[in-house]
Specification:
Length: about 280
């Protein structure tokens, strides 16, 4: 993790002139996010075609946009809630494209025979599990944030996932009969599911104390009291008494209003002291 942060800081220093150029040209952060996603989808298509090394370079270079869009947004003061939502949504598109491209690559092994034939079907299953795991990794964090819990835990967050999906493939391709790629994909899937479990456990621990306090407060406020026909909660009894009191007041008010209105046989009494028609007689 520390090594990844160090590499990220180094990339940001190297990319500083690019950031300045984008700001000078007035390029919006959302445009950078869109370009990066399109490039990543193209990389996923190259994976599906079987050019693993080229695809690794394309995905790795397109991932730089993840650094550029946030940096440009912060330095230009153009950060927004929609921008964060848009970036997160397109990240899911990019992840699905790359992992789906690898799944297609393994499914087409009968055509290009780039890996052992016996590993073709198992690796398709591994990649499908990897897609689900990577989506759940992001979903569990987003759902936790909706509960005001920062679940940024786990051994495989998105930056590490991008590194695994690009760097080894860019440098090694299908080395050792494709076993390097197979090993990376298995590690990616396993660590993604471990991260999901870690985040679920983290949210469970964070909410367990809150749930206990809520249940204790609910039980304390629902003490039973004697009532006709058995026992009813004290709060329900109080509500019934309040409804009865409000009904009695409404009836009393309506009676007083009717008492102020003369009968139909006394038209002169239905006028105010000034001689104008009363509110009761005006058109509604």
């Amino acid at each position: 993790m520390a090594l990844l942060q160090l590499a990220r800081s180094g990339f940001q220093r190297v990319l500083a002139p690019v950031v300045d150029l984008l700001i000078w040209r007035g390029v919006s952060p959302n445009a950078i996010t869109t370009f990066g996603t399109v490039a990543t989808v193209i990389g996923g298509g190259i994976y599906a075609h079987g050019d693993i090394r080229i695809a690794g370079w394309v995905v790795g270079l397109s991932a730089i946009c993840d650094l550029l869009d946030g940096t440009v947004a912060r330095q230009t003061g153009r950060t927004s809630v929609f921008g964060a939502f848009y970036d997160s949504t397109l990240d899911r598109v990019a992840d699905g494209a790359v992992l789906g491209g690898l799944a297609i690559f393994f499914a087409r092994n009968g055509v290009h025979h780039a890996i052992p034939d016996s590993m073709s079907t198992p690796m398709v299953s591994v990649m499908l599990l990897g897609i689900i795991g990577s989506f759940l990794t992001s979903y569990t964090r987003a759902r936790a944030e909706g509960l005001a819990i920062d679940a940024k835990v786990g051994i495989l967050q998105r930056p590490e996932r991008i590194v695994l999906l690009s760097a080894p493939q860019a440098f090694f391709g299908l080395a050792v009969g494709g076993w390097v790629l197979i090993s990376i994909c298995v590690v990616l899937t396993v660590t993604a599911w471990i991260t999901v479990i870690q985040r679920v456990a983290f949210v469970y621990r964070a909410t367990a104390a809150q749930d206990s306090r809520y249940q204790a407060a609910t039980q304390a406020s629902a003490r039973p009291v004697a009532g006709r026909g058995g026992e009813v909660p004290e709060r329900t009894s109080q509500r019934l008494e309040g409804v009865a009191l409000a009904t009695e007041r409404m009836v009393s008010t309506e009676d007083s209003r009717l008492a102020d209105v003369a009968s139909p046989g006394e038209p002169d009494a239905r006028r105010t002291d000034s001689g104008q028609a009363s509110t009761f007689d005006r058109a509604r």
